């Protein structure tokens, strides 16, 4: 942050938030006016059995505030989780942009990130099949820059005017009010079949990307094409990418459904615990840059939000890293009241004529006005920039600034024309001077009309397990659609992407299989497949099934080795408490078979013990069965090997057995690092 901003009152985000924090420990209770309260259990009455009196100002204040505690939830992205962190620049972007926070390698700015699902209400579960919001607020010394994106790089529609239609279609159907947080219903698929610009996005939504393993292991994308503008006024098209350092990983559908039942807060709990444990989630920021003069050299329109720029054609250049290192103090004050807007930019970052982006530039401010109660939402602590702000805006609901002086208009002489606009040299924002001409039309460029080529490229780029997942996802979703004609329309649409896929889905959902179709676009992009992502064992949670009479020395060595490899072993048994090994070693169980369901873990290590009864064996067998069917790594030593043999999983890929810790540990860690073992027979 510059000295000028510090002199003028600029503070770091943590310093700024500190004055708004309130710690009620060891404090007397007061009213909102600061009056100490002597009673908070009983309202003031006319006699012990008489009516409550209106003069009880504490009762009235308490109830009035409670009655007004709720604000409207977001229409979309209602289910969210936020965290604080910092962004550090690796490489200067000075040749492309004059944005201050992208100039000096090693410089850092505070950030706040909000992850969310899109379709569900605030109380919906964490892992529906859905897009995930990935919104980042950079608190820079030139103002806030909001990168408001998703975990998928494309979107359903090409023009913002259709967004209300899309959301009306995916939300619970108005005559029944269900389904909640689900796209598997008639109105959504009716919209898709009749708005085929959604074809590419549907492939992403039916892929594993729609059910991420956790928030730490999903990519983020700015979706739209923006502009970088440098000091000389030269512009480049740019797309933004967040690449997780742990790689991109997902659940399988059966597992996701069970997680939603066992722990509907699964992904928010995961990221909260990771930050508390010091396993700070990290993403590297990448950019794709295209010179303006190359706008028309590709076989897709660079402004079309339903298209990607294949990384093999336009490489992603990594320029920095974001680390989330602090959880919020208060979910409402920070996560719920944070207000993002793609129009929050800084000098050096500008817009393009992407028609979906243009629509968002109106919509985001408009929705905050009703959700946060007026035009002063920028003054809420989580939204305040770290640099000073001065203008002639006044009054309104929730105003906090106490403006001094007579003037609130421009131009003026009483205040010597202050606050005054800043020149470009002084840091004033100047819009890129793009030449624009043409007739007023309500139309779309012909270059936007190819809806299926990149959808085919996405499918062609998938591994066999991912293709199978897509087939099963379409079959499940369309199997929930009651109207057979809609099912047929969607299958016919899919035939324009891949004929064999449409035929397989048709057979599964009871409609006519298309006889012809397919797509001649044979291009693939290996970067699209999760099989080509980073695979690490780091931070993965391992269920360790243990009972009395275990081999104490061997188990202790293995547990220590797992921790040394940055994994989290959790002891699961019949009940909580200390378990005693055959040699007197004691290890505490922190989860039971009821609270430690296998879907909540990334891997399984079965130890058992000499005291296993039939109930224990049944529960342990269930864990083995679930882990195996979800393709997760399984290891066993000692009596645990007999449990694997009983389950008929010995010798399958990703199943490791050995009684010598020095042999077992490295093989098991390698199996855990692979995450899934798709080539096993389930």
From TrEMBL:
Heme binds at residues 74, 114, 163, 360, 364, 371. Its EC number is 1.11.1.6. Its cofactor is heme. The keyword Endoplasmic reticulum does not apply. It catalyses: 2 H2O2 = O2 + 2 H2O. InterPro entries: Catalase, Catalase_AS, Catalase_clade2, Catalase_clade2_helical, Catalase_core, Catalase_haem_BS, Catalase_immune_responsive, Catalase_large_C. It holds the Pfam family Catalase-rel. The keyword Cell wall biogenesis/degradation does not apply. Keywords: Heme, Hydrogen peroxide, Iron, Metal-binding, Oxidoreductase, Peroxidase. Transmembrane segments: none annotated. One of its GO terms (biological process) is hydrogen peroxide catabolic process. Residues 1-34 are annotated as: Disordered. Residues 1-29 have a biased composition (Basic and acidic residues). One of its GO terms (cellular component) is cytosol. SMART domains: Catalase (SM01060). Belongs to the catalase family. HPII subfamily. Decomposes hydrogen peroxide into water and oxygen; serves to protect cells from the toxic effects of hydrogen peroxide. This is Catalase. It comes from Lentibacillus persicus.
């Amino acid at each position: 942050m510059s000295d000028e901003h510090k002199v003028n009152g600029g503070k770091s985000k943590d310093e700024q938030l500190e004055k708004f924090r309130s710690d009620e420990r060891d404090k007397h209770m007061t009213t909102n006016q600061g009056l100490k309260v002597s009673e908070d259990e009983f309202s003031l009455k006319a006699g012990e059995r008489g009516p409550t009196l209106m003069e009880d100002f504490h009762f009235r204040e308490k109830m009035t505030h409670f009655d007004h505690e709720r604000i409207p939830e977001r229409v979309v992205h209602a289910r969210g989780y936020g965290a604080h962190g910092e962004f550090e620049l690796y490489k200067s972007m000075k040749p492309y942009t004059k944005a201050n926070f992208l100039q000096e390698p090693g410089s850092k700015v505070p950030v706040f990130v909000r992850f969310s699902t899109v379709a569900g209400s605030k109380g919906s579960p964490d892992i529906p099949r859905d897009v995930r919001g990935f919104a980042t607020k950079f608190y820079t010394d030139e103002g806030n820059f909001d990168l408001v994106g998703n975990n998928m790089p494309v979107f359903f529609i090409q023009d913002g005017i259709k967004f209300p239609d899309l959301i009306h279609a995916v939300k619970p159907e108005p005559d029944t009010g269900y389904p909640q947080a689900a796209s598997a219903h008639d109105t959504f698929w009716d919209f898709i079949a009749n708005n085929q610009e959604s074809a590419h996005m549907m492939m992403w939504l039916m892929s594993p990307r729609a059910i991420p393993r956790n928030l730490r292991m999903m990519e983020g994308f700015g979706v739209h094409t923006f502009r970088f503008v440098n000091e000389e006024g030269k512009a480049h098209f740019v797309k933004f990418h967040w690449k997780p350092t742990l790689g991109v990983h997902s659940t399988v559908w059966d597992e996701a459904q069970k997680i939603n039942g066992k722990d509907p807060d699964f992904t928010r709990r995961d990221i909260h615990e990771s930050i508390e444990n010091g396993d700070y989630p990290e993403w590297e920021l990448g950019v794709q840059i295209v010179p303006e003069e190359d706008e028309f050299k590709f076989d897709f329109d660079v402004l079309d939000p339903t298209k990607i720029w294949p990384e093999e054609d336009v490489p992603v250049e990594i320029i920095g890293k974001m680390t989330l290192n602090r959880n919020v103090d208060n979910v409402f004050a920070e996560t719920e009241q944070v207000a993002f807007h793609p129009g929050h930019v800084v000098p050096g970052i500008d817009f393009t004529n992407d028609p979906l982006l243009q629509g968002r530039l109106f919509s985001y401010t408009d929705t905050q006005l009703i959700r946060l109660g007026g035009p002063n939402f920028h003054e809420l602590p989580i939204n305040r920039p770290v640099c000073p702000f001065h203008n002639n805006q006044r009054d309104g609901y929730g105003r906090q600034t106490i403006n001094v002086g007579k003037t609130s208009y421009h131009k003026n002489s009483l205040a010597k024309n202050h606050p005054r606009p800043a020149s470009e040299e002084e840091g004033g924002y100047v819009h890129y001077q793009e030449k624009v001409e043409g007739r007023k039309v309500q139309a779309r460029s012909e270059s936007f009309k190819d809806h299926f080529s990149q959808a085919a490229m996405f499918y062609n780029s998938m591994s066999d397990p991912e293709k199978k997942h897509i087939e099963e996802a379409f079959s499940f979703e369309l199997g929930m659609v009651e109207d057979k004609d809609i099912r047929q329309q969607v299958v016919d649409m899919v035939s324009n992407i891949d004929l064999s896929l449409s035929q397989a889905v048709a057979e599964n959902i009871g409609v006519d299989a298309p006889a012809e179709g397919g797509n001649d676009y044979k291009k693939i992009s290996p970067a699209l497949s999760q099989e080509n992502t980073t695979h690490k064992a780091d931070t993965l949670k391992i269920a360790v099934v243990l009972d009395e009479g275990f081999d104490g020395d061997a188990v202790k060595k293995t547990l220590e080795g797992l921790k040394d490899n940055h994994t989290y072993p959790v002891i699961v048994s019949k009940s909580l408490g200390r378990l005693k090994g055959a040699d007197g070693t004691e290890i505490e169980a922190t989860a039971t078979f009821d609270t430690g369901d296998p879907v909540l873990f990334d891997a399984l290590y079965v130890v058992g013990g000499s005291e296993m009864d039939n109930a224990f064996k049944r529960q342990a067998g269930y864990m083995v069965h679930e882990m195996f069917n979800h393709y997760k790594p399984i290891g066993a030593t000692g009596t645990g090997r007999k449990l694997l043999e009983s389950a008929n999983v010995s010798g399958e890929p990703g199943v490791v057995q050995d009684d010598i810790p020095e042999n077992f540990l490295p093989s098991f860690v390698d199996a855990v690092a692979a995450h899934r073992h798709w080539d096993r027979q389930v």
